[in-house]
Amino acid sequence: MNGIQKVDTRALQTNRFSKLLSSIGIYAIAALFIVLGVVLQSMGIINNFLTTQNMMNIVDAVALLGIVAVGMAFITYSGHYADLSAPTTIALTGIVSVELLRFGFIPAIMGAVVVGLIIGIINGIVIGKFKANPIIWTLAMSYVSMGVIRFVWVNKQIYPDVITDDPFPVMLFDNIYRFRFFNAISLPLIIMLVLVVVGQFILKRTAFGAQLKLTGSAKRTAKFSGINVELMIALAFIISAFTTTIAGLAITSLSRVGAYYNGAGYDFRAVTAIVIGGMTLAGGRGSIIGVLGGTLVIGLMNNIMTLLGVGTFSQDIIRGAIFILVVGINAKTLRSMGRDDA
Amino acid sequence: MQRLYGVWGGMMRKNKLDKSKLLALGDRFRIYILFGVIFIFMSLFAPRFFNSYNLTTILRTVSMNATIALGFTIVMICGEMDLSIGRTATFAAVIALTLQKKFGYGISVPIAVLAGAGVGLLNGILVAKIKINSFIVTIGTMTILQGATYTITGGNSVSLSGDKVFAISDFLAKPLLPMLPPRVLLTILFVVVFHLFVSNSQWGRNFYMVGGNRTTAWLAGINTDRITITAFILSSTMAAVAGILFAMESSAATLNMGDNSLMYVVSATIIGGTAMSGGKGGILRSVVAVLSLEMLYTGTILFGFGNEVKIFISGLILALVVLYEAYASYKHEKTIGQRAVLLEELAQAKEKI
Hints:
Low-confidence stretches of chain A: none
Largest sheet of chain B: 2 strands, antiparallel
Number of domains of chain A: 1
Order of helices and strands of chain B: HHHHHHEHHHHHEHHHH
Low-confidence stretches of chain B: 1-8
Number of helices of chain B: 15
Radius of gyration of chain A: 21 Å
Oligomer: heterodimer
CATH topology of chain A: ABC transporter involved in vitamin B12 uptake, BtuC
Helix content of chain A: over 70%
Number of strands of chain A: 2
CATH topology of the largest domain in chain B: ABC transporter involved in vitamin B12 uptake, BtuC
Strand content of chain B: under 5%
């Protein structure tokens, strides 16, 4: 009896701020940003916030980032922080798909997916099996993919319509990003929504999700209760590489060029979205719905800052500061509540 | 009979001990052996490698990354990671050159060094006090620093002109002693000071203790937080100094000048035998490893390969090094507590008694 009473009472408290940040609360912040945009527009400080075109811009940007973030969230959930090889995976899969467009549309897609999965499997084996540090390994992996791009394509940019004379596959490739149902809903948006629903289902309703949660929050316990921890971690990295590949195809279709600089910055933006969305870097906490909210906040924030005339690079400063602030507050509150020893 | 067996066994043990001693010795001098092998190979086979001009160029090029590696090695010994080194170098260089236009080097350089130290202080406090993982913190500061660098310069590289500035550039670059321009001499001075500091002082030992086992270090009365923060400040400051000296020598700073340093210094430090888990390593070995890598890369260029090949090879080397370290610790973890290992430990313990 005594043992039970000795449970640290701090562990039973809930903290308002961390609750606000977790899951549903993030949508309130997104709504606040919309209100902020509307207020700024009514005061005449910014123009064109509440227009159809601008809203569509926000949604399109959110869709691309969301596709990356949903996959990467699995890695964060498994307690392995992030996949820093995402930008070069985007670039590499994009350039491979453009190169293979000469054999038709289907081979191009298949080629990109195969390359993406190879990167994911390598990451998964090295980090899952050999327990390499995820950040430093994915960083190394990003340098390797960058090296492959530089080695094979020697600083060249390749264009779909130059690669092949056949207009049909080029048209299909261009439409990965540009096709819109009812002239409004873009294909990446639908892909992202499907990924969110499927991801949320996998994370919360399947045995795999539960095992991943235990792996993320208590790896040793997970291992001793018979979970194949190595496989779980590897699968998280493969899922991330897969969704990054989809984003890579969409981004390359958007820019109509395969080049090594495609996708730069997507790693950090995705991690920020994940963290703001209430998924803690310690692993095992948060949800995909929250990540979607985080992505939405990042998209709205970027849009308002751009409309305010804040330069792209100054936005980096703000984004970085917010990232550190949220991670710090998260770590601090979790620790003061006695829920985390990290 | 039993006695004979005992003598025999003793001899066996003695042999085994010798072998393991030899292995340990080899492991300890691994990086110096590697250095010698690369140097001899390149001197024999790479065209135009072994002449004073090329060797001076190598020493000059290596100065920046060697200086960065000094502080970074301390952070690694502490068991932490500083991914912001490259961007800190660029940031400080840009500050030094931008402010030079108004105030001259006399004021701009100290400010830039202080800015670098400030970055380190921020990193250290976030890691030690707020207890965020150092990988995560330094990714954040990396992004902030990039934004700051681009904002300061408006997205263009900074270059200076004028007799005074060029006089300083020339002074830094022109050999004072045979093959040794002042910038290289300065780097050698830094290396000596840091080597003595880390291997011979109380502070230096504390870095190893904190990296080896933080709790034990704390129980032994070491202020672990202060040690960690110091390590980060040293790392960022040396990165800033390296960036500033590089920019002063060329009177210009490009916005991606420090981007390759991260990959370079991380691979070199791990090759030099500083473990990512902390508590192991040394300043001198990291510097020798940086030198070995630079010779390797210069060699590939001299063999006639382009810059793409260099990028490809350096990425591959980092990946292989990280993979090797992960695999080594994986194997070590697997054999811990196994019968063979335990028996060996028992034999060694008996020998001591």
